[in-house]
Amino acid sequence: MHRIARNFYSIFVLSLIIINWSCSGNNSDSSVSEQEDTEEVAAEEERASPLKTISGNIGDKSISVQYGSPGIKGRQIWGDLVPYGEVWRTGANEATYVTLEEDVLVAGKPLKAGKYSLFTIPRENEPWTLIFNSEWDLEHGHFQYKEENDVLRVTANPEWVDTDQEWLSIAIVPDGLEVKWEKLVLPISIE
Predict the structure, then answer these.
(1) Does 10 reside within a domain?
(2) Is residue 27 part of a domain?
(3) Interval 6-19: pLDDT, tens
(4) Positions of the region Disordered (predicted)?
(5) Rounded to the nearest 5°, which phi and psi values hold at 16?
(6) How far apart are CA 27 and CA 7, in angstroms?
(7) CA–CA distance, 180 with 168 (Å, rounded to integer)
(8) 43 part of a folded domain
(9) CB–CB of 134/98 below 8 Å?
(10) What global pTM score does this model have?
(11) What angle do CA 67, 114, 98 make, to 5 degrees?
(12) pLDDT tens per residue across span 86-117
């Protein structure tokens, strides 16, 4: 009797293993894809500065932006973490980049359709320099920036507000883009 029970138990356990193995997709393409998706989501959740992507229209022109969104986290931002007078990647991690589906005017100057990294040069009491650079896929942001690849440089006047914005954000607004972080609002005129 014990031998029959042991055999039955062994068959039962083996059946559960086979069922579990067949339900897991036994390394089919879909399970590999699901595993990669899960790894990407886990990696994104671990980022100190989450990766954000926005898209929309300014007038009838399509635009999208991808950027890393750092937090203040109790730090001094302007003039310290982000030094004045130096090229900044306008976000965190990889270079922020803008995709334009049509030609546009940025601060009144022409910029052809395409993909561009967006850099800024913050200044304490002066207009900031906005830089659109042809090298958009820079995984280390301003550390790989090369001025000779600049396509357009314009200026914008930062606005300072009373309330803090913990996480950097870039929004598409009717007049272009708007960068907000800490007490800064930086309008980027695009038409």
Answers:
(1) no
(2) no
(3) 444 445 444 444 44
(4) 27-55
(5) -65, -40
(6) 30
(7) 6
(8) no
(9) no
(10) 0.74
(11) 15
(12) 999 999 988 999 999 999 999 999 999 999 99
